[in-house]
Each structure stands twice: as structure tokens, then as C-alpha cells.
Amino acid sequence: MKYFVTAISILLLAAIAWLIFFSGIVLNREQKEMNNTQSTGETIVVMETTLGLVEITLNQTSAPQTSANFEKLVRQGFYNGLTFHRIIPGFVVQGGDPKGDGTGGPGYTIPAEIKLQHKRGAVAAARLGDQVNPTRASSGSQFYIAFQDLPMLDGQYTVFGQVVTGMDVVDQMAAVKTDAADKPLEPVIINKAYIK
């Protein structure tokens, strides 16, 4: 009986040691995966528009505050149902205004994080002009997507993302008929925006 109890005790101790060792391996693996995800500094936002899907990678390394704000608004459903209220072929398509006329937003601005260039498909924060906004603070929600490289905007606006899928959908927006104020005659809507 004494040997039986000893054998059971040894087996239980071995099982406990194995569980501790195994859980350490699993935790270590999960920590490494989490670190790898964080080190890329990228979050992908999917926008389901009336013309198709557009996927945007946020650059959390170069524009951490702007990216975090955009992600927060996406998670809150802020962009769902909003329109692209300004389309200028060969230049930009702009959206993210709850009023739909270029004057709206969430009621705050984001400090400028001007580092990245305006390449084709660049996603940047809109803002008020230098006369009333000398610090070049970004709009809290309005953004635009560049139809082509726009070096004349470099150093003036915060670029915080890049279209990685769906640039063909963005190009379709350039063909939408607009009025004299560059507002689409038939709304181009962000039906839903979410994190991939």
C-alpha cells in the first residue's frame, strides 16, 4: 500500500510538472505571436462601399495617434452609412464627414503627424487650412484617398494609411458624376467599416 501511495504521488507530481511546463510553452508562444502582431504596426480596415470593398492598412508607426483615432471610430461604427462627399478625379476622394458637406466631424482634432508621402492609394487626414490651423492639426474623422501620387501635398497633411486592396474600387469613384462643388450626384456610401 505504501508503494502504491508513493507511485500515485510521483505520478501526480509528474502530471503537475508537465502541466506547468506545457502552459509555460503555450503562454510563451501566445506572447511571441502577440509581439509579432504588434511589431508590424499594422491594422487593416475594410470599407464596404456601394461600389465594392476597399482595404486600408493603417500605419501605426508613422502616425500612431491618427491611426488609433481612425481605428477607434471604425470600431464605434462612426463611418457606417457616411458618404464620400468630395470626388476630384486625378486628385482625391474624401469622406468621413457626418454632415456630408465637408464641415462635420466628431468635435475634436488630432495633432499633426506629417511624415509619409502621398503615393497612389495613400490615405490621409483632411484638415482646415494653414490660415486658421497653423499647427496643421488633422480633422477628427475626415480623410481622403489619393487617386495618384500627389507630391505637392507632401509635408502638409498626415498620411496614416494605404489602400492595399480595392484601388480599382477607388478608381471607379473617379467616374462618378459630381456637381460644381465636387459632390457626387449619386451618393457613394460607406455601408460598413470594420477591422479585418
UniProtKB/TrEMBL annotation:
Enzyme class: isomerase
UniProt-listed Enzyme Commission number(s): 5.2.1.8
Residues covered by the PPIase cyclophilin-type domain: 44-195
UniProt GO molecular function: peptidyl-prolyl cis-trans isomerase activity
A Pfam family reported for this protein in Swiss-Prot or TrEMBL: Pro_isomerase
Reaction(s) catalysed by this chain's protein: [protein]-peptidylproline (omega=180) = [protein]-peptidylproline (omega=0)
GO biological process: protein folding
Keywords, alphabetical: Isomerase, Membrane, Rotamase, Transmembrane, Transmembrane helix
TM stretches of this protein: 6-27
Function: PPIases accelerate the folding of proteins. It catalyzes the cis-trans isomerization of proline imidic peptide bonds in oligopeptides.
Family to which the UniProt record says this protein belongs: Belongs to the cyclophilin-type PPIase family.
Protein name: Peptidyl-prolyl cis-trans isomerase
